[in-house]
Write a structure and sequence with these properties.
Elements lengths: L3 H20 L16 H19 L5 H25 L5 H23 L5 H28 L1 H7 L8 H21 L3 H25 L5 H30 L1
Length: 250
C-alpha cells in the first residue's frame, strides 16, 4: 500500500477500538453509546472490535480496501446513529456541531483511502477523492472555530514554555485549520496544506495529548482524545498522499 497515511489512520482505529473495549464505550469522536440503550456494553465491544479489525485490514495490502471501507462505514454509523440525533435536538449548541464534525472528517478520510486502494475508473476516483477532501475541509472550519469557542481551554492546552505565548498558538492553530479547509475545498495549495496539517496534528500529539497520559491522567476521555488526534493526523496524511499521487500522475 502506497499510502503511509492510511497506515497511521489504521493504527488510530486500533487504538480507538482498544480504548472502547478497555473503557466500555465507543471512543470514536469521544462519544459514548447512551447508557439507556439495552446491551450497551455488548454493542460498544462489538463496535470497538470492528474498529480493530478495520485498522488491521487497512494495514494488510490484500485487504486494505476492505479495511478502509469498514472504517468508513463505522464512522458513518457513529454519525447517523449517535451524533446526528443529538445534534438535531441541540442545534444552537456549538459543541454538538464540533463533535459531529469528527466522524464526518474521519469517514471522509476513510472514503479517500478506500478509493485509493480500489479499482475505480480514474475520473470517478478523482471525483470521490475531491468530495472526501472537500468534506474534510468543511469539518476543519468547525475544528478551527472550536479553538475560539473554547478559547480558555485551548490556551490552557498549549505548553507555557513555547514562545511567544499560549494565546498566540491558540489563535494560530485555529486559523491554520480554517486555512487548510479553504485549501482543500479550493484546491489552491492543497498539498502543502495537507502536509502542514498532518504536522500540526502530530505536534498536538507530542506536546499536548501524549504528555497528559504520561502525567497519569489516564481517563477514557483523554485516551479518546489521543486516539482521535492520531486518527486526524492519519486522515490529513491520507489526503496528502492522495494529492501527492494526483500530482505525480499529472
Amino acid at each position: 500500500m502506497s499510502s503511509l497515511g492510511a497506515r497511521v489512520y489504521g493504527l488510530a482505529a486500533i487504538v480507538i477500538g482498544v480504548t472502547g473495549i478497555v473503557w466500555g464505550g465507543l471512543a470514536a469522536g469521544g462519544i459514548s453509546i447512551p447508557k439507556a440503550w439495552p446491551d450497551r456494553v455488548a454493542l460498544a465491544d462489538a463496535a470497538s472490535a470492528l474498529f480493530i479489525v478495520g485498522g488491521v485490514l487497512i494495514n494488510w495490502r490484500r485487504f486494505a480496501v476492505w479495511g478502509a471501507a469498514l472504517l468508513t462505514a463505522l464512522f458513518a454509523l457513529d454519525l447517523f446513529v449517535l451524533c446526528l440525533p443529538r445534534l438535531a435536538t441541540h442545534l444552537a449548541v456549538f459543541g454538538y456541531w464540533d463533535a459531529t464534525a469528527e466522524p464526518v472528517a474521519l469517514g471522509a478520510a476513510g472514503l479517500i483511502a478506500c478509493v485509493m486502494n480500489g479499482t475505480l475508473a480514474p475520473q470517478l476516483s478523482s471525483r470521490l477523492q475531491y468530495v472526501g477532501r472537500a468534506v474534510f475541509g468543511l469539518c476543519l472550519f468547525a475544528f478551527g472555530w472550536a479553538h475560539f469557542a473554547y478559547l480558555d481551554h485551548t490556551v490552557s492546552m498549549v505548553p507555557a514554555w513555547i514562545p511567544p505565548s499560549q494565546m498566540f498558538w491558540a489563535w494560530f492553530t485555529a486559523l491554520a485549520a480554517i486555512a487548510a479547509g479553504l485549501a482543500f475545498i479550493s484546491g489552491v495549495w492543497a498539498l502543502p496544506a495537507a502536509r502542514l496539517l498532518t504536522l500540526m496534528y502530530v505536534i498536538f500529539g507530542i506536546f499536548v495529548h501524549v504528555p497528559i497520559l504520561m502525567a497519569g491522567h489516564t481517563t477514557a476521555f483523554n485516551w479518546a482524545e489521543n486516539a482521535v488526534n492520531l486518527a486526524l493526523a492519519g486522515a490529513a496524511w491520507v489526503i496528502a498522499d492522495s494529492l501527492a499521487a494526483r500530482t505525480a500522475a499529472s
